[in-house]
Amino acid sequence: MLAFYRDVIGLSVTFDDGKNYAELQAGETALGLFLREAMRESLRGPAATAQSDRTILVFAVNDVDAITQRLPARGAPLVATGRDMPEWSIRMAQFRDPEGNLFEVNQPL
Predict the structure, then answer these.
(1) Domain regions of the chain by residue span
(2) Tens of pLDDT, residues 31-70
(3) Spelled out in words, what is the top-level CATH class assigned to the domain 51-109?
(4) What DSSP element (H or E) covers 59?
């Protein structure tokens, strides 16, 4: 997961203990990635084994269409092509990461 968000998405690594946890910078937001076993231990319950699509990561971008062209070629499967969502005032596209988690890129209309 670290390699995907670093190399495919292009986020900068700000911390990596090389074992259980890494943190990446996404604009003014940090994305923390736990080793699954470490997260399970941290949560101590069923939330640690929740299925995909219970959470979505959303990244604000400048050009949804450019990213929609670039990410699939770099290994991010496209789930929903770029489309306008006037009711939310955004243009968006959705992808999957290597573990099947859903993430979205969007920009204001």
Answers:
(1) 1-50, 51-109
(2) 878 776 765 655 554 444 444 456 678 888 999 999 999 9
(3) alpha beta
(4) strand 56-60
